[in-house]
Automatic annotation (TrEMBL):
A Pfam family it matches: TnpB_IS66
Record lineage: Bacteria, Pseudomonadati, Pseudomonadota, Gammaproteobacteria, Enterobacterales
Annotated protein name in UniProt: IS66 family insertion sequence element accessory protein TnpB
InterPro entries for this protein: Transposase_IS66_Orf2 (IPR008878)
Domain of life (superkingdom): Bacteria
Signal peptide boundaries: none
PANTHER family noted in UniProt: BLR8292 PROTEIN, PTHR36455
Length: 59
C-alpha cells in the first residue's frame, strides 16, 4: 500500500499467513478503498462478503 502524506510517501506491507487479499478493481491504474474496506483488507477479511461473528452475551 502506497499513499502520499503531502510531504512524502508512506509504504505499508503485510503478508498473510494463508489466503489472499481481496483487492477491488483498478480504475486508470488506481485502486480506491473506503476506510472500512482498508480495515477489512488489513485484517484479511474479504470486504466483498464480510461475515459477522455471533457472540453470546451473558446477562
Amino acid at each position: 500500500l502506497l499513499w502520499s502524506t503531502g510531504d512524502g510517501l508512506c509504504l505499508l506491507t503485510k503478508r498473510l499467513e494463508r489466503g489472499r487479499f481481496a483487492w477491488p478493481s483498478a480504475r486508470d491504474g488506481k485502486v480506491f478503498l473506503t476506510p472500512a474496506q482498508l480495515a477489512m483488507l488489513l485484517e484479511g477479511i474479504d470486504w466483498r462478503q464480510p461475515k459477522r461473528l455471533l457472540t453470546s452475551l451473558t446477562i
